[in-house]
Specification:
Layout: H1 15-21, E1 30-34, E2 37-43, E3 49-55, H2 63-74, E4 84-90, E5 93-99, H3 106-111, H4 120-140, E6 143-146, E7 155-157, E8 163-165, E9 169-173, E10 180-182, H5 195-200, E11 202-204, H6 205-221, H7 236-245, H8 263-276, H9 287-295, H10 318-326, E12 346-351
Parallel strand pairs: 9-12
Antiparallel strand pairs: 1-2, 2-3, 3-5, 4-5, 6-12, 7-8, 10-11
Helix pairs in contact: 4-6, 4-9, 6-8
Length: 352
Amino acid sequence: VGREITTLEGLQFDLATIATATNNFSPENKIGKGGFGEVYKGTLGDGRDIAVKRLSTSSTQGSIEFKNEILLIAKLQHRNLVALIGFCLEEQEKILIYEYVPNGSLDYFLFGGQQQKLSWSERYKIIEGTALGVLYLHEYSRFKVIHRDLKPSNILLDEHMNPKISDFGMARIVNIDQDRGNTSRIVGTYGYMSPEYAMLGKFSEKSDVFSFGVMVIEIVTGKRNANSYESNAKGLLSYVWRQWNDETLLTAVDPSIKEKYSQIEVIKCIQIGLLCVQENPNARPTMATVVSYLTRHSIELPFPQEPSFVLHGGGMDKNIVRHQQESSSGLSASSSNPFSVNDMSISTFYPR
């Protein structure tokens, strides 16, 4: 883990520097857009490439809260998190400056329709690195952070295809002795939300575990779960659960994986995914347990229970959809843009 940052000194950039870096926020430099603002690629005077997130002027957050948030996010340093380099607060502009991650999003590599598909070894590395990043947010960072919007478009890939989790930001601090909270504002994305969060607004580390499980299954199968709430649609989780019961899991593997792969690893990853998407949050493993499953070869995994959305006939429960639509002002729209940096997610920070 990196150095501890305690002041804003060295993090604040002036607007002129950022305008120069992005060619005055040129449309050619724009690499993403979400409900909280737009993202531009820029290059600083020292040659460093940066991603500049220009928050929408409709943001109601005051400058003191904004600076507090910057201090929190800047303290989160891990090789599997996108690093916050700094911020700009000037002339009504609120801007976050991140390291630039050159290969774009996992969403693009899984669902973007481009020719270059991920090998199995790359997929396993992405699953493992993402698990380590989420574990750091839950257990090892200065503040416990629940991301609340884990999905492939929020996993960026560096030049070596190492995953980096993005959009753990716009934080809300809650009491130290809580490990779960309630919210009236549902922030997340269809297909990745745990049922207790989507229906009741209850979130905990196990909400992130659920989202991680969906992503693992998507990485193995190359199929998207995000549309499984549509009427009469049989979701990806239902499909994979059926393959699990029929002991035909290898038929679910993404056919674009042409090279030889470890069948044991593939089956283990699907089993981990199914354990993470169980209906009962208490039955889901912690991220520490998930990491131990991924890194230890001799460990025996428990058998998963039926995934939650299968219990609603394969699609997402209509009450969940209605509840989400009523409170979806914060929802991120996923896209297959190679640099899809979507809505700023409302992560939750807990002082330790």
